[in-house]
Structures are given as C-alpha cells and as structure tokens.
Automatic annotation (TrEMBL), chain B:
Residues 5-248 form the ABC transporter domain. This is Energy-coupling factor transporter ATP-binding protein EcfA2. Belongs to the ABC transporter superfamily. Energy-coupling factor EcfA family. ATP-binding (A) component of a common energy-coupling factor (ECF) ABC-transporter complex. It is an enzyme of class 7 (translocase). It is found in: Cell membrane. It is a peripheral membrane protein. The keyword Transport applies. Its EC number is 7.-.-.-. It comes from the Bacteria. CDD domains: ABC_cobalt_CbiO_domain1 (cd03225). Its main location: membrane.
C-alpha cells in the first residue's frame, strides 16, 4: 500500500507542476477523450510517447511511477483477459470450451490494455503534479459558468479542497486505528470473505466517529474565523496562464490532429 | 530465554526506495530489562512512536532484529502467527479511546481476549476484572462506549488492552488531553500494574515530571537515533545532554538547580520528585544546624 | 466612547434543546481591556458553551453580551467575530487550508483582504509565531504544537481585540505549550490584547491576572491565581494540580519547617528557604 501513488500529490517545481491547474485538468480530460479515438498501433504509440515525454518533464522517477501504478495492474490484466477470451473474429489461434483466442481478440485486448495504461498514466500524472488546492481551484474555474444557474461553485470547491486536505489526516488515523486493533489481535485481510468484511467493522466504526468529530469541530472553527457560505470572499491563490501553458495546449492539439489523421 | 527486550542494529525506513523514503530508525541497539519501568523521551519525530510499533511487529525492522523473549522479529518475519507476541505485548496508543467501536463497553473490552482465543466461559470474568482495574463501575458495562465522558472512554480503552493480560505494557503518551486528575489516575494505575503485577512498562512521554517520578530507565531518542539509555537519575543529572536535545528538566531538578545557584548546599544526586527534593532540603538544614548549633 | 470593559456579560442564560437544565445559568461578569482571565471548572461546567456564546456561535436565550461595545446579536456577528479570535483544543480540527499559508489566508479571505495585504500579513504573523520557514508546508507534516501555532497565527492575522483559548494547549507537549504561551504573552503586551483561556493547566493559570470558576453553569467565584493556589480545597475541587512550589511548601511545612502557609511562587519560595538557611 505504501507504494500506491494513484491520487497522491508529490510536491515539485517541474514544468508540469507549474502548469495552470485549470488548463492541466482540461488537457488531461481532453487527452482521455482522444484516447478513445485512437484505434491503431501508430495512434496508440504516439499517445504513449506523449505520456512518456510529459512524465519526463514532470521529473518523477520512472521506476517510482511504474511501481506506484502496479497495484492497478491486476485490474487491468483481468479486463484484458476477459477481452481476450470473449471477443471473437479473425484467425483462431487456440480454443477451449466456450473461449477462443483469436487475432481480433488479441488486437482488442492490446488496445484495451493501452487505453488503461494511457488513462491511468495521465490521471496519475495530473494528481501527482497538482496540489489538492490547485485541483479545487481548477474545478472551481471549470465550473464557474454554472454560477449563472445559482450553483454554489465556490462552496463546492472549498468543500473539495477541505476533503482533500483531510485525506492525509484520515489516512493516518486509519493506520493508527488499524494498528491499535491489530495489537488487539485482529488479522485484517485473512480468512474468508465474511470474516474479512467483519474484521473491517473495528476499523470503520472508529473512523466514521472520528470523521464526524472532525467535521463538527471544523465547521465551528470555520464559523469562528468569519466564514459564511453566503458571503463574498477574496482569493489568496492565483494561477496565471503562462508561456508553458500555451506550449502544452499546442502540443496536445497537434497530437489530437495527428490521431484524427492517422486513425483507421 | 532472554529476560530482556533486545534491539540489535535495527533500521527502519518508511516507504523504502521511493522519493518519500524516510529513515525513521537508524541503527538502534537497546536492552530493556523485563520487569523494568522504562521511558522513552525525545522530540516529535525522533522515532519514539516507530520504535513502539515495532514492539508489536506492526512494522518490521528494515535491517537488524528485535528479540522479545522467545520471539524474534526481522524483516523476514511474516504476518502469520503474530498473535502470541501481540498477546504478550499490550500496546496503548495515543488517544486510545479512538479505537473503541463495539455496541457496548462489555463487548469492546472482550474484543481483544476473544481475538486471542480466550474461552467464552472466562470472558465475563476477564471483562469485570479489567473494568475493576481501571476503577469503572460494573453497571456501565452495557452502555455504549460513545455515551460516556472522555476520561472514562480512555479508561475503557485501557481496560480493553489490559483484558488480554499482557506481560509487557507499552504506552504512547497515555495522559495527553486529560485533566490533571485524570492524568494522575492513569499514572497511578500504570505504576500499580508495574509494582503489583510486575508488568514491564515502556512509556513514551513528553512530560518529564512523570518520566522522572516513575521510571527506572530512560532512553533518549533524537532524529531516529538512540542517544543514550541509562538509569533515570543518571539521565536527569546530565543537564547538557537534555538541553542539547531540547528536553526539559523535571520541575524538581529545575528547583534543585535554582537552590544550588543560591548557594544552598544540597546533597549529590538530583531529586526525581518533590518528595526527595523536600528530603534533600531538610537534610541540608539539619546538617546546617549541626554546623552552627 | 469606548468603555473600559471589553466584555460585559449580564444575566446570561442558555439551554441546549435536548437538555433539561440550563447549561449557562444567570452568569454576569465584566472583563477589562488587556486582562488575561482564566476560566476553570469541571468538564460539563459550561466553560466551552460560555465562549461559544461570547462569539455568537450559539444563540443567547436571555441576558446580554457586549463585546467591544457591540451587542452580540444575529445581525452583527461579523463585527463580533472580527474582534474575537478563537483557538480550539484539537489542532487538526481547525486547519482548513492545504498548506500553512493557505490556512492563515482562510480568515483573511473571509474578510475580503486583497492578495497583497494577505501576503504582508501572513509574513508578519508567521514571524510572530516563529514559523516563517514553514510557509508552504502541509499540516500533516507539522507537530501538534506547530499546528497550534499556525492556528494562532491564523487568528492573530485578523488582529483580534480578544483572544480566547479553549483548552488550546492540552493536546500538545509541555515544550510546545510553553512556546505558544510565551508567544501569546508577548503579543498580548505589545498589542493590549485581552486573553481568556479555558484551562486545567496551572502554568497557564499563573499567567492570568484573574480566575473565573464555573460550576453547573454558574459563576461561583471570581478570584485570582494567588487566592486560588492558596486554597487547597479549591484546587482539589476543580481537579487542578498544585503548582510545584506549593507542593514543595506543603512537604516542607509537614516536615516542620517554618514556612508561611500561604501560596508562594518559585522565586518567593527560594528566597524564603534561603532566609531560613542563613538564619541557622
């Protein structure tokens, strides 16, 4: 679990880190959309290369990154295997019972695999290089047109940033509670499924109790510091759009055009 | 069989081989005698809490080994069959009331013994004894652990650990957040377990008055390293050591030093509590009167 | 005209919806500008409820509270909360921002400070709490004492007239406690700030000039630390520990030394012991 990096933030000063968060989030989603347009080897490979370049610029060690997304590999492999044995067409290489391994099956399994890798890589890269606060800021900017229909966009963004700010606190707490119960003889993650689920109760109950306590006290503290959801607030953080943001946008636009032209 | 807890060249690295890697313990060598009252002191982040978790194999040494009686823990130790060790070593974490979860106090206290395979016929007696130890009235047994006061919740949590009848009791800041009366109660309880049941106590604390008053041995930690491990009077006599590692002197030692600065001769050896300070003052007074009278 | 009293509480009553009895029961007192007042009493004596009422975090049932010449009522809570800074017990539950500077900015954003002003103020208050090197740190990387100093900085950023500590030092280590109390004491004298602290800690009580004792929602004594430490019964009744000097005096008196029975702080006790020693 320690190596699992999906959804985590790694502070840094790289070119990727310093991109404007709003633009970074939009670019990541745009990239994911493009991934679904890719349908042949060359398009997948060019998208993969783009990921590698972005990863390089983020200065995150490749080995660390690969280790970090490894826990997701099982999920990918299962999906890929299902795709492999259930899709038919083309030449049949092997068959048993109702399963067949076919050339088209192999091909679509490979594409599914690539899609997974690309989407996981780009979204992990987004969270690794963007602080929770910046993500909340980006989401607020993206949602800001919805203010016109009276959606409390600023409140939502503050909620997201507070939720993200409490992730490490609650993770620590979960670890502590798990340790405390382990030393009272609980063996998490062993035995049959019912036993495993049962062993989660001594973890989840205290965690919920504590989360509610956090929320309760935090809301009082926020009110005492002059917060009120209806009120106008000024903004401390700003993220100007800079040179690199334009370069990033041009690159991704270029790649997307490439994918459109090179797809079958 | 070793009548000691032994740390041999123990290192511990959090998240080894990642950019988050952090060396929490560096080459720790320690002997903690069974039956002793040993305190671990040091600033936040000095590695105290990591050391404590290792005593229950919640984390394992990255290098080196830890020996507790017949148990040996190394990086190779698997997660199977750790319950005998965890039964031997009871761990009371900071804010232990956070681990309460069951519908009733009775069930919560019974949780540990049940996990360790104690027969159901003995559970009731164990629960009652444990609640008596922490001086809670037995009629609260059926109550939810969430509807009693904070101080009582902590006592229930401690009872839950004592119910497993550990030989070694490890406590991480057991008195934090309690009022002085509650603090005193907990410390008296721990001391009673040590004196009457001969329990080995390992206490992590920032409160030097408590450390000085109760412990035989003190271990000073700093930045993941073990700086010094010695009898408590030796440690608290070494003002230089304590100030170098930003540790406070106990009130009795501070007062002793002030008296000595004021040219009031007091005997050798610093007092570890108010009573011995008072005795030292009286002794120097009676010597003084002999000299003059 | 600004009166000499920064807080005036008159016949205050408050009852929680689901409880039978009043949690605050006909409480009246005044606090002067620049005073440091300790509020003590058992858990459940109404201390925390009282300060929530002062800050308008709970609605008053009857009676009145005046803060800095403003009556506490629904339509001027902004004013009230600007003049009061509150630091709570659990450092984790008042940290709103994802980093130190964001957290201090939170209160400033609520009061619509400009970005430039925020930066200046954040620099200033970080210096006050001696945390300038931690400006972009995340809360999970800080110790309890450091988090509490940031909570204090966030509150001082709004230059409150009154600082209220709700057992603010009870969850941090003694050294962290001493550091934060020093910071508060210095800031208070420089800025003529009024301090109210709810506490069980004698070191903290020693810093105050006045002590209010609450019991079952009633103000039963309005005294000072000397008087308080003088009466062993009171200390026991409120489950407070005796100050170290008082503990030592008692031991020495019990052993027959001729030491006055009234409370002396450490300096006075040392002088007294020295005098006795030289007389022999």
């Amino acid at each position: 679990m320690d190596n699992f990096i999906f959804g985590r933030y790694m502070p840094g000063k790289s070119k990727i880190h310093s991109l404007n968060p709003t633009i970074k989030i939009i670019m990541s989603f745009y990239f994911i959309v493009i991934v679904f347009f890719a349908n042949n080897l060359i398009t997948y490979v060019s998208l993969f290369l783009l990921c590698l370049v972005a990863l390089r610029f983020s200065k995150i060690p490749l080995k660390f990154f690969v280790n970090g997304i490894k826990p997701l590999i099982i999920l990918i492999i299962i999906t890929v295997l299902l795709q492999l044995v259930f899709s038919t067409g083309g030449q049949t290489y092997a068959s048993f019972w109702i399963f067949k391994i076919t050339s088209l099956g192999l091909l679509s399994a490979f594409y599914i695999f690539m899609r997974f890798i690309l989407i996981i890589t780009i979204s992990t890269l987004l969270t690794l290089t963007t602080s929770p606060l910046a993500i909340a800021y980006g989401i607020e900017k993206i949602l800001s047109p919805l203010k016109k229909i009276h959606l409390p966009v600023e409140t939502i963004s503050l909620m997201i940033s507070i939720a993200l700010r409490f992730v490490p606190t609650l993770t620590d707490e979960a670890m502590n509670i798990m340790n405390a119960q382990r030393s009272r003889g609980v063996d998490f993650g062993s035995g049959n499924i019912i036993k495993r689920i049962k062993s989660l109760i001594p973890l989840l109950v205290p965690l919920f109790v504590s989360a509610f306590k956090h929320a309760d006290e935090l809301s009082i503290a926020m009110e005492a510091r002059g917060y009120s959801p209806e009120m106008k607030r000024s903004k401390f953080k700003s993220y100007p759009i800079e040179h690199n943001d334009y370069i990033g946008m041009i690159v991704i636009l270029f790649i997307s055009l490439m994918v459109i032209f090179l797809r079958n | 069989m070793h009548k000691e807890i032994i740390f041999k060249n123990v290192d511990y690295y959090y998240q080894q081989n990642t950019p988050y890697e952090h060396k929490a313990l560096k080459n720790i060598n320690l002997h903690i005698p069974m039956g002793s009252f040993t305190s671990i002191v040091g600033k936040t982040g000095s590695g105290k809490s990591t050391l404590v978790q290792m005593l229950n194999a919640l984390i394992k040494p990255t290098h080196g080994s830890l020996i507790i009686d017949e148990f040996k823990i190394t990086s190779e130790t698997t997660n199977k069959n750790l319950n005998p060790l965890r039964k031997k070593v009871g761990l009371i974490f900071q804010f232990p009331e956070k681990q309460l979860f069951a519908d009733s106090i009775k069930e919560d206290v019974a949780f540990g013994p049940r996990n360790f395979g104690v027969e159901e016929s003995k559970i009731k007696q164990i629960v009652e004894n444990s609640l008596k130890l922490v001086q809670l009235p037995l009629d609260i047994m059926e109550k939810s652990p969430f509807e009693i006061s904070g101080g009582q919740m902590r006592r229930v949590a401690i009872a839950g650990v004592l119910a497993t009848n550990p030989e070694i009791l490890v406590l991480d800041e057991p008195t934090v957040g309690l009022d002085p009366k509650g603090q005193k109660f907990i410390m008296n309880l721990i001391n009673k377990l040590h004196v009457e049941k001969n329990m080995t106590i390992i206490l992590v604390s920032h409160q030097m008055d408590i450390v000085a008053e109760y412990s035989d041995n003190v271990i000073v930690m700093h930045d993941g390293k073990m700086i010094k491990s010695d009898k408590s009077n030796v440690i608290f006599n070494d003002e230089k050591l304590l100030s170098r590692y930003n540790l406070e002197l106990p009130s009795s030692v501070k007062f002793y030093n002030k008296l000595v600065e004021n040219n009031i001769p007091l005997g050798e050896g610093v007092p570890l509590n108010v009573e011995s300070l008072s005795n030292q003052i009286l002794k120097s007074f009676s010597k003084g009167s002999k000299r003059n009278g | 005209m600004s009166s000499n009293n920064i807080i005036e509480v008159k016949n205050l009553n408050f009852k929680y919806e689901n409880s039978k009895e009043n949690t605050i029961n006909d409480v009246s007192f005044n606090i002067k500008r620049g005073e440091w007042v300790s509020v003590i009493g058992h858990n459940g004596s109404g201390k925390s409820t009282l300060i929530k009422l002062l800050d308008g975090l709970l609605p008053i049932d009857s009676g009145s509270i005046t803060i800095n010449d403003n009556l506490v009522k629904e339509n001027n809570l902004d004013q009230i909360r600007k003049s009061i800074g509150l630091v709570f017990q659990n450092p984790d539950n008042q940290f709103v921002g994802a980093t130190v500077e964001d957290d201090i900015a939170f209160g400033l954003e609520n009061n619509q400070f400009s970005r430039n002003d925020m930066n200046v103020i954040i620099d200033k208050v970080l210096k006050v709490v001696d945390m300038s090197n931690y400006r972009t740190h995340e809360p999970s990387k800080l110790s309890g004492g450091q988090k509490q100093r940031i909570a204090l900085a966030g509150v001082l950023a709004l230059s409150p007239k009154i600082l209220i500590l709700d057992e603010a030092t009870s969850m941090i280590d003694p050294q962290g406690r001493n550091e934060i109390l020093d910071i508060i004491n210095n800031f208070r004298t420089d800025n003529n700030m009024t301090v109210i602290s709810i506490t069980h800690d004698v070191e903290e009580i020693k810093l105050s000039s006045r002590v209010l004792l609450l019991k079952s929602g009633m103000l039963i004594e309005d005294t000072n630390p000397y008087e308080l430490f003088n009466s062993v019964e009171n200390l026991e009744k409120y489950s407070l520990e005796m100050p170290f000097s008082a503990q030592l005096s008692r031991h020495l008196i019990n052993s027959g030394l001729d030491i006055p029975n009234s409370y002396m702080d450490e300096e006075e006790l040392i002088k007294c012991i020295k005098k006795l020693y030289l007389k022999m």
